[in-house]
Specification:
By secondary structure, the chain is mainly α. It is about 65% helix and about 5% strand.
C-alpha cells in the first residue's frame, strides 16, 4: 500500500541541510524536482504545504513560489480549491518530450568535433546500468539511463542545453513512473546505450546518430504505450 504523501513529506527533513542559510524558492524547487524525478512523489500525488514546508523548514510563501516554478516546468499542476499535484503525463506529452530529445540529442552527436570524445560520463552510466540490472534494480537502471543521456548532451559543452535537458528528462521520469513492468521497458536499452558508446569511441558520429534515432523512436513508442495503458486518472491528471 502506498505510503501517505504527508508521511513521505517528513522524509524531506534530511534535505534541510541542502538549503543552508540562504534558503530560496529555487533551492526548494531543486530539491522537490529531484524527489519528483526519483518517484518519491509519484504522478497524481497531492503535495502537502504543511508537510513539505515543515520538513524543509521553509515558509509557506517560499514553498508556494517553489511550486510555481515547478508548475511552470510542467512537473506540477495546480487545481483550484484542490491543491498542487504531481502531473500525470499523457501520450501527447510523451510525443513532445521525445520530439525535443530528438532535436537536441541528435544535434549534439552531429555537432561533435574530431575524436576522441570525452566519454567518461557515458561509460560510467553504462556501467552503472549494468550493475543495477544484475541486482534487479530496474529503477536504478532507469536512473542510469537518464544519466547516460544527460552525459550525451553534456558533450555539447553548453550550460543552456544542459539546463534544458535537465527539465525535459525530469518530465520524462513522470511518464516512466507509470510503467507497470520497468524491466521490460529498460532492459533492451542497456545494450543499445553500449552500442552508441562504442560508436562514439570509434569516432563514428554518423553511426552513433543513426543508432540514437532508432533508440529514441523505439523508446517513445514503448513509453507512450505505457502511458496509454495506465489505468485510471489519478488526481492532478487534468491540465
Amino acid at each position: 500500500m502506498t505510503e501517505p504523501a504527508e508521511d513521505r513529506a517528513g522524509g524531506l527533513a534530511d534535505d534541510r541541510a541542502l538549503l543552508g542559510r540562504t534558503s530560496t524558492a529555487e533551492r526548494v524547487a531543486d530539491i522537490l524536482r529531484t524527489r519528483v524525478a526519483e518517484g518519491w512523489f509519484p504522478p497524481g500525488t497531492r503535495l502537502s504545504e504543511d508537510g513539505i514546508g515543515g520538513a524543509l523548514g521553509v515558509s509557506r510563501n517560499t514553498l508556494r513560489e517553489a511550486f510555481r516554478l515547478l508548475t511552470h516546468e510542467r512537473l506540477l499542476v495546480h487545481e483550484l480549491n484542490r491543491g498542487v499535484f504531481v502531473r500525470v503525463l499523457d501520450a501527447d506529452d510523451v510525443a513532445d518530450i521525445y520530439r525535443t530529445r530528438g532535436l537536441v540529442e541528435c544535434a549534439v552527436v552531429r555537432g561533435l568535433g574530431r575524436p576522441p570524445f570525452p566519454l567518461d560520463g557515458l561509460a560510467a552510466a553504462v556501467a552503472a546500468g549494468e550493475t543495477a540490472a544484475r541486482a534487479g534494480d530496474w529503477n536504478g537502471v532507469s536512473t542510469a539511463n537518464i544519466h547516460f543521456h544527460r552525459a550525451l548532451v553534456a558533450l555539447a559543452g553548453s550550460a543552456r542545453t544542459d539546463e534544458l535537458m535537465r527539465g525535459v528528462l525530469a518530465e520524462l521520469r513522470l511518464a516512466l513512473h507509470l510503467v507497470e513492468d520497468p524491466r521490460a521497458l529498460h532492459e533492451p536499452f542497456l545494450a543499445r546505450n553500449g552500442e552508441i558508446l562504442d560508436a562514439l569511441r570509434a569516432g563514428e558520429r554518423g553511426t552513433a546518430e543513426r543508432l540514437l534515432v532508432r533508440y529514441l523512436d523505439d523508446s517513445r513508442a514503448r513509453v507512450a504505450d505505457a502511458c496509454g495503458r495506465a489505468s485510471g486518472t489519478p488526481p492532478g491528471a487534468r491540465r
